[in-house]
């Protein structure tokens, strides 16, 4: 699947947490079996729990979490993503994570969980 072939079939959502760090969250369903979750901003203690709940609320055979526009990923956010990944595994779904190329972000994700990391959205969305 080419990134240009994806079409938005769900209205994007945008949230800014009161008193916390701004985090933009958008969900796209290019095909019925795939949920593409786009995040931009910072994931820290002020928003990681709600972010994790938002991620878990998207049911699909494959969930792709795109962190390429995340400027800061705190350890609590990485842990919350690991919990979300375990939730998807119990449901029989898979979660793939697209990283920004930031070596610290990638190292944190590798330390916290056993994520299926990808360098691009196209790679993560591609069927096996």
From TrEMBL:
**Superkingdom of origin:** Bacteria
Give the matching InterPro entries: STAS_dom, STAS_dom_sf
- This chain's protein is named STAS domain-containing protein
Q: Outline the extent of the STAS domain.
A: 24-128
* Organism per entry: Pseudonocardia halophobica
């Amino acid at each position: 699947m080419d990134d240009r072939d994806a079409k938005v079939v769900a209205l994007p959502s945008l949230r800014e947490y009161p008193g916390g760090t701004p985090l933009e969250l958008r969900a796209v369903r290019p095909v019925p079996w795939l949920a593409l979750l786009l995040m931009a901003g910072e994931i820290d203690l002020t928003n990681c729990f709600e972010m994790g709940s938002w991620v878990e609320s998207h049911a699909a055979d494959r969930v792709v979490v795109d962190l390429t526009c995340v400027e800061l990923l705190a350890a609590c956010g990485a842990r919350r993503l690991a919990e979300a990944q375990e939730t998807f595994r119990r449901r029989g779904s898979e979660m793939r994570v697209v990283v920004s190329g930031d070596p610290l972000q990638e190292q944190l994700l590798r330390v916290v969980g056993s994520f299926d990391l990808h360098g691009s959205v196209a790679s993560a969305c591609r069927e096996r």
